[in-house]
Design a protein that fits this description.
Helix content is 89%, strand content 0%. The chain contains seven helices and no strands. Helix 4 runs antiparallel to helix 7. The longest helix is centred in the first third of the chain and has 39 residues. The protein starts with a helix and ends with a helix. The mean pLDDT is 83.
Length: 256
């Protein structure tokens, strides 16, 4: 996992040399994380409506359903804003840090910045989701934290190997040595898929733990549903980060 954090930090300092742009980038990552938590709150709110539908009057039910859709719409709008606004931040940061890069390097720098923000947002999302799990059920949340750290450590090892592979490809290009496109794509995609497979294994373990705790009465039915949605979000985040890290490795080595 150290190799992931080291490369993220180095790329952040290289792409965004001023504190102003770093602060904006961190703020966008926090916004992405808050949207993720909002989605969990939406899931919890939806579950409460379904479980207590018979206890609500028609007026209350209509009010809660409208509120649910409005809240959900705001989370979608917030996500759209976060993803579009970051492109403006990239453009300003790159113009303020023009250093005579070639067109080839400039294109890869954009790819690197996009993957960097995706990974930072995912890491922030994972952290906030884990805190949410700990709040709902401390034992489940702490066990989830341990398993997520193990998965990140395994993905980190794959990422370190991918950095070496992509650097070999980049050096071969500079020396005008031809490497087949199939080999380049296969190397990157296979590494990402191995990370996704490891994340899926962790998901199975956590789902089994969730079902056990629910069966023992440690977690209420409503919270069990919310934690299930949270686990799906977490698994999606880890899977997305696995593929993003492999694209990040390619962009980083080709932009050097």
């Amino acid at each position: 996992m150290k190799v992931i954090l080291w490369n993220l930090r180095k790329s952040l300092l290289e792409l965004f040399p001023t504190n102003k742009f770093r602060l904006i980038l961190i703020s966008l990552s926090l916004l992405a994380a808050s949207i993720s938590v909002s989605e969990l709150l939406v899931a919890k709110f939806f579950t409460q409506i379904i479980l207590h539908e018979d206890e609500l009057s028609d007026r209350e039910l209509i009010f809660f359903v409208i509120f649910f859709f409005l809240f959900y719409g705001l989370t979608r709008a917030g996500q759209y804003f976060q993803r579009i606004y970051r492109l403006k931040v990239f453009e300003r940061a790159f113009k303020a840090n023009e250093s005579g890069l070639s067109k080839f390097q400039e294109n890869w720098r954009w790819s690197l910045a996009i993957e960097l923000t995706n990974i930072l947002a995912t890491l922030t999302q994972l952290g906030v989701v884990i805190l949410f799990f700990i709040y709902v059920n401390p034992m489940f949340g702490l066990l989830d934290l341990v398993i997520v750290l193990i998965v990140l450590q395994l993905i980190g090892r794959i990422f370190a190997k991918q950095i070496k592979e992509q650097r070999n490809f980049a050096n071969a290009r500079k020396k005008r040595k031809r490497i087949g496109s199939a080999e380049k794509f296969r190397t990157r995609i296979k590494s990402g898929e191995v990370g996704i497979l490891q994340s899926g294994g962790a998901m199975i373990v956590l789902l089994g733990l969730l079902l056990y705790l629910s069966h023992q009465g440690e977690i209420s039915p409503a919270n069990t549903v919310v934690l299930f949605f949270g686990l799906r979000m977490q698994n999606s985040g880890l899977s997305s980060m696995s593929t993003s890290l492999m694209r990040f490795a390619r962009a980083r080595t080709h932009s050097e």
